[in-house]
Amino acid sequence: MTNSIKSDAETPLVKTLAGKAPAKTKTLKSQLLGGSLTLLAGSGLVGVTNLFYNVVTARLLGPTGFAHATVVYTILMLMSGITLSFQVVCAKYVAKSTSPESRASVFAKLHECSWIAGVVIGVILFLASRPIAAYLNLPDRSLIRLLALGTAFYIPLGVRRGYIQGIHAFAPLSLNFMLEGLVRLGGAVLLIELGLGVKGAVLASVIAVIVSYFAAVPSPGLTALSFRGISISFREGLQAIVFFSGQTIINNFDIVLVKHFFPPAEAGFYAAVALVGRLVNMCAWSVVNTMFPVSAGAGADEGEGHPVLFTSLLLVFLILTVLIFGLWAVPSFLWKILFGAHFELGNYGTLAPLLILYAITTGIYSLSSVIITYEMSRKIANTSWVQLAFSGALALGIYVLHQTLRQVILVQFVLMIALLFVLMIPLLRRHFTPRALPIYGSLKLRRLMTEEEVMAEFLRSEFHHAEFDKYRQEFDTLVRSPNLNSPRENALRQALLFLRRGAMWRELPADTKWYEVELTADDLARIRFFPRAQWRRVAQGNFYLTDVVERLRQKLDGSFNDSFLGKLRLLSSSVQENLVDPAVLLIGIDNTSPLTILDGNHRMAAAMLVPGGPVLTGFRFICGFSPDMTRCCWYATNVNTLLRYFKNLVIYFSYHPESDIGRFQEEEI
């Protein structure tokens, strides 16, 4: 052990943690970001591979052959509604399982059910190959029969990928997606060159699915068939089926309808446009595939899940922005070079305008997918049914309005904006509406305090900061020994305090009444930190003092290079030796509501971390009460209170406390 670590270990704080294993837990956000980046890297390579696949098959087969191959692959994607239903249910139950045995049992039961479903659907496709081929204007029903074989393996593949996703093995999951894309690309080039044409492209997709199925590891294997006692909720399965049925219709059914209504050349043109939608959707799903098990494995408190949701939405929005800008920046002639001159139709010009419009439409839908899958990871969500209704409206809209390919895309564009709007309404309502606060026992109020007295206490605890360096010598007596009966001193102390805390103080309601209060050990459970950056990475959405301190205990033993935790170590000694300012400022609605620490976060945390520390005896607690405290962002952080905070920043932008301090200095001269 190095000398520096030994020195730290001798402090009272670290002594209490001796013998504990180093904490290895990750925050929800770090799991989400790490997994998303891993899957995004894989999705990027898969996207490039799929782009090459589509470009190669388009050039080798021409618009008509490309349309045939794409529509058959699209039917396979329609089957992905069932595949992904199994995947998401498996991922959710595996993420929530607490032992390898229970995870293996979940896998075994779902794997058996998926094989039954895959074989049944495969047989149905095989028997119905003739009418399906006729409806889609396909030249050979053997294309649908090949698809039936691929479907039999494709549905169980969802369970294997769901297990990998549920145990957060995002790198193997990403590699499996990449393997499928590479086998499909290589197989298509080889088989088409051998003279198999469209049949070769379809066969390559089938081979890619089968190879991916056997390569989907890690998994608990196929021998773990004891699943008695494992109950997979019917409602969970129904929710997944409803969601992915709606999703597959939205993402793929337009291609089926275009193939039916439009001539082969135009259908091939649209298939080339639609491939970019699949690329956008694939990149967005790298975030969704990470978010789902992370959110499902988090606590039931919605406050813990919200950071995951909003981080996911932000990541998807950034990904979509980059992709759409990239499509806009690509010169139109490059698309002609990639796909060939026969992919430029007189009625539509080049691919670029339709590509960008289609990408924006898919991007808007991807944001909706994030919201729906988040709701599914936490509970049985009705949003899946909302999406299914919109998927039906989309199919009906295209069926009625399909005079041009642009009109087909515009129908989707309008409906996807409407879907996102409908999903955002309850989300924003929950975020705008303050949640009901728990009720606690009444605090003991010692005495009423004036605002000037509270400001004096606040300034004294802040006066060591660098902002006051040039004023410290001149105003030390005014701060340390305040004359509260002097209006001039009170005004000067306010100007000094506002150098550092003006934006904070102005958010407090004007009718705030201040009391010195007496806290008991039970009252510590009602105290919260306000969600500032340095506390966010520890709190994981739950900012109550006792919960945050417990998380800090898990981190402190192995984090000697962390400046924030280092500050708490130093403060622990100072608190024990009574070297810190004893005044702690709290705010609340009344003496039965939760309290938020306005000033004294670090001192309270450091005192709580020391066994038998002077939490209740070493501090004076001053609490401000107002019925309107929920309008203050330090007490209730939501969209409304943050907008109020930014509005006040703008209003007081031109105010400089230094000018008031300078005026007082001049008066004294």
Characteristic terms for this protein:
disordered N terminus, 24 helices, 669 residues, mainly alpha
Provide a short characterization of the protein structure:
It is built from 24 helices and 6 strands. The protein is mainly α.
How would you describe what is shown here?
The protein has 669 residues and is mainly alpha-helical. It is built from 24 helices and six strands. The protein has helices at residues 3-9, 12-15, 28-96, 100-127, 129-135, 142-166, 170-193, 197-215, 234-261, 264-297, 302-329, 332-339, 352-378, 383-400, 405-432, 451-462, 469-480, 487-506, 533-539, 545-556, 563-576, 601-609, 639-651, 657-668; strands at residues 444-449, 513-518, 527-529, 583-588, 595-599, 620-625. Strands 1-2-6-4-5-3 form a six-stranded mixed β-sheet. Helix 5 (129-135) crosses helix 6 (142-166), helix 6 (142-166) packs parallel to helix 8 (197-215) and helix 10 (264-297) runs antiparallel to helix 11 (302-329). The longest helix has 69 residues, at 28-96. The chain starts with a helix and ends with a helix.
- How far apart are the termini? 59 Å
Order of helices and strands: HHHHHHHHHHHHHHHEHHHEEHHHEEHEHH
Q: Round the Cα radius of gyration to an integer and report it.
A: 31 Å
Sheet bearing the most strands, described?
Answer: 6 strands, mixed
What structural category characterises the helix and strand content? mainly alpha
On the 0 to 100 scale, the average pLDDT is 76
Helix content: 55-70%
Identify low-pLDDT runs.
1-29, 222-230, 298-305
Query: What proportion strand?
Result: under 5%
The main sheet orders its strands as: 1-2-6-4-5-3
- Strands, count: 6
The general outline is elongated
Number of helices: 24
